[in-house]
Amino acid sequence: MAQFAYTALEGSGTVTAESLRAARDVLRSRGLTVSRVVETASRSEARPDAAWTSRWGGERFDLKAFARELATLLGVGVPVVDALETLSRSRSGKPKAVLDALADRLRSGAALAEAMRDPAVASRFDELSVQLVEVGEQAGTLEETLDRLAEFRERRDELRGKVGTALMYPAFVTVVAVAVSVFLMTRVVPQVLEPLRQQGRELPAVTRVVQTASEFLVSYGLIAGLALAALSIATGFALRNESGRRWWDRTQLRLPLLGPVLRKQALTQMAVVMATLHRSGIDFSRACGLTARSTPQRVIRRALEDAREAIVGGEDVAEALRVTGQFPPIVIQAFAVGQQSGHLEKTLDRVARTYEADVRRSTQRLTALLEPILIVLVALLVGAIALATMLPILEASDVF
Predict the structure, then answer these.
(1) Closest listed residue to residue 308, CA positions, set 321, 295, 297
(2) What pTM did the predictor assign?
C-alpha cells in the first residue's frame, strides 16, 4: 500500500491505495473530480516524525498520545479527516492501520465516535473514550473533550506507576532472596554437610533442620517447582471469572499495608473519571454507569453500581454511597455537596488531587518501611543457612 496526495475541485487530501490507478478509482468512487494525483511515500519508506515517534512508542497504539495530538490539530483548525491523515502519515504498522481505518469511516460519513466503535478498531478504544468523544461531537467541543481524555489517561497512568514502582523493589528483593536461598540449599549445603554426615557426627538442631530442607529440595525440588507452576496457572484461570476476580480484589483491599493504598488509588481514578464525564456534559446516572465500568477494582465497581441503582430509584446520593460501606466520608460528602451546589466536577477534582497526594505519600512510606524489613528478613534467612552450615564445622574443629 502507498500514500497518494490528490487535488480535486472539491478539495485536496491523501488516500491509501495499491497503485496510482487504484487511487484514482477510489477518488472517483467518492464522487470527486480529480485533477492531480501523486505518490507521496510508501508505508515502508515513510519516515515518522521524530516527536510523534517518541511519544507513540514504536508499533503500539497509544490512545493518550492519539487524543492529545488530534486535539492539537483540531485546535489549529485542521478538519478531523485531514488531522487523522496527518497522524497516519507519521506512523507505520498497527497505529497507521487504526488511523487509516478511522479516516476511511469518516470519509464515508460516519462520526468519529461511530468510527471508533467499528469492529476493525474497537479493541483500541474503551467505552469511556468512545462516550466522551461522542458527547464532544454532539456538543461541538471535540477538541476540549480530547484534551480531557488525554489528561485523564495521563493521570491514571501516573497513579498506577506510583504503586507499581513502590512494589517493584520489594518484589525484586524477594525474588533474589529466594533464588540465593535455593542455590545455597541445593548446591552449597549438601557439599559442606555430606562429609560430616559420613563421619557420623551429631549435628546441631538448626543444622538438621536446614539439612532436611536441603534434602527435600534436592530430591523433590523439580516436582515442587512444577506443582507451584501448575498452582499458579490454576489460580490464573480461577481469577479470570468474575467471582474469582472479585475475591482477589477484596483480598487485596484487606491487606494490612497495601490495602489502604490500593483503595485510595481506586477511589482516585473513580473521582477523576466521574469529574471528567460530568465536565463533558454527561448526566449523573450515565456518568455513574460509565465510571463503574471503567473502574478495574471489582469491589469499588460493584459498590458504585449498587449506589447508582439506589440513586436512580430515588435514594439520596450520600445515603446510597454510605450503605455500600466502600466509600469513606470525604468521598460521600463530596458527592452530596457537589450535587447540591452544581459543581460536582470541581469537588471531585479536589478529592482526586487530595487522594493522589495521599497515594504518593503512602507509597513512599510503604517503600521506606518494606526496604529495611526485607533486608532484615533476607539477612536472617541467609544468616541462618550460613550458621547451620558453619556450626558443625566449628564444633568439629573444637572451636567451641
Answers:
(1) 321
(2) 0.62
